[in-house]
Specification:
Layout (H helix, E strand, L loop, with lengths): L3 E5 L2 E5 L10 H9 L7 E5 L14 H11 L3 E5 L3 H4 L3 H12 L3 E4 L2 H8 L1
Helix pairs in contact: 1-2
């Protein structure tokens, strides 16, 4: 399956393929953001597509990628179970909690959870 735009709760979402290339740099984020110009408002990225360093906040990878989405005003949703990462990092757990309180970046378990948040 390739990345595709689907409608969830009336919102066009670019759902990224789990088998696509790793998102590891700011430029990788910009490449994904570019695909939203076909009409998507939100990008749903499987957690497995993110470079492992994303989940170690001190590397700055998460901050760089997330900042690109904020700068381009494209909402980012990380989809999948990241409990193994949050269990070992209070900072990551706090980031997830705070992000989920906002509207720009969310962490959800699956696309059904995303659809529920959008309704």
């Amino acid at each position: 399956m390739a990345d595709e735009i689907v409608e969830l709760a009336g919102v066009p979402v670019l759902v990224c393929d789990a088998d696509g290339p790793s998102i590891a740099t700011d430029q990788d984020a910009v490449d994904v953001i570019g695909a939203t110009y076909a009409g998507a408002e939100i990008v749903a990225v499987p957690a497995g597509r993110l470079d492992e360093r994303f989940f170690t906040l001190r590397t700055g990878v998460a901050g760089g990628i997330m900042q690109k989405f904020v700068n381009y005003r494209v909402r980012l949703v990380i989809v999948g179970d990241i409990a193994a990462y949050t269990a070992g990092s209070t900072a990551l757990r706090d980031l997830v909690t705070e992000s989920n309180r906002g509207k720009q970046i969310w962490f959800v378990d699956d696309l059904d959870a995303l659809a529920a948040r959008l309704t």
